[in-house]
Amino acid sequence: MSAADVLAILQGAVVTVTLSLVGILIGLPIGLGLALLRWANIPFIARAVAIYVSVLRATPLVTLLLLLFFALPNIGVAIGPVSAAILALVMNTSAFNCEVWRAALMNFPKEQYEAAQSVGMHASLRFRRIVLPQIVRVSLPGLVNEMSLLIKVTPVLAVVGVVDITRAAVRIGAETYEPLPPFLVAIAMYAPIVFALVSLQRFIERRQLAAEAA
Amino acid sequence: MIRDFAIVWSERDLLLSGLGNTTILSVLSAIAGLVIAFVLTPALMSKRRGLALTVRVFVDGMRCVPFLLFAYIVYYGLPSFGIRLDNWSSGLVALTVYHAAYLAEILRGAWAAQPREPIEAGVAFGFSGPRLFRRIILPPLLLAAGPVIGNQMIQIVKDSAFLTIIALPELTHAASSIQSRHYVPFAAFITAVVLYWGLCLVIEAGVSGIDRLAAARR
User: Fold this and answer.
1) pLDDT tens, residue by residue, B92-116
2) CA quadruple B25, B26, B29, B32: dihedral, nearest 10
3) B69 contacts in chain A (CB < 8 Å)
4) Do B64 and A180 touch (CB under 8 A)?
């Protein structure tokens, strides 16, 4: 395994991190939107969202990715590996985020909402000023946890040909007939990313606990 | 579209055997993982620092590594050490060892949250060793950790789909071979998705059963 090989895996790391970030950034607001649709209890739509979330949470990312990658071109939607990868990540993570946001919304104290109503705030102001800042704080550890889970399923993207850490490592292993070294390098790249997110989650939880105690 | 689903229906044996294999893999590795976790958890909470630290490094290490990469290492990497496993055994070993680490952490959390008094009362009544564990510690522990273990079971089912890359004939592998043979991607994969959903609903029903049992005992 040469230095060029390590560099190739490093390039894969850039792809992994970029795709994960894009997935997270799109998935977060969509998850919130889905949670709000359920929270508002709109008769038909809330039910549909509940089923969507339940199915998506049960579907392995590989299966979802293969479905999107092969079936969308079949019905006339041209889709490349990268777009299929982003779409799959967003669908997957938004379903999990929806549950985290929803838990925070359900535990939101009703009195505050009614107080805001009684001082004459309209719905969007109420949401922006009263609800959102508080549910963001409550949901943060869960959302960060979901981000670390997302990073851990990204190797699947290699299956449709996205050249991420895993695919770069597999290619080098196949070329050199020594699969172990590139895989260990790959682990050395994933582990710090996941570890950083897990530490961030613990840090947030500790700080919130300390804030509550004070 | 109806024709596509008819093709999938004609290949139902393949899909069902895939579903069967997914179920067998998940159940076996969940049971084996739990058994290993029950060995790891006391070690995690052990007063011997060296032992506790070693197990802690293993558990945290597993939690930082993506499952797919771990499965690759077991399948392609272990032969470098002279250990050669076929796809079934390496899939099973990878799933079991990986999730044993997660289960150990779950059990540790539940164990630490258990009240001390019943255990001390058990000791006062003359229970000790395995009998103390089986009769006094284990039942409330399993009831308390039940829902989280159920979530982990769902995770195991989903991770088993990754094993398609080492050509293990599980559900996703069956769907992909149907799609490549007949070119019916939507019908094949959507059927697989529905079957996964069903499997997870069964697990969730089991968990809520345990929850009701726990509530009744409280």
Assistant:
1) 999 999 999 999 988 888 888 888 8
2) -120
3) 155, 166, 169, 183, 186-187, 190
4) no
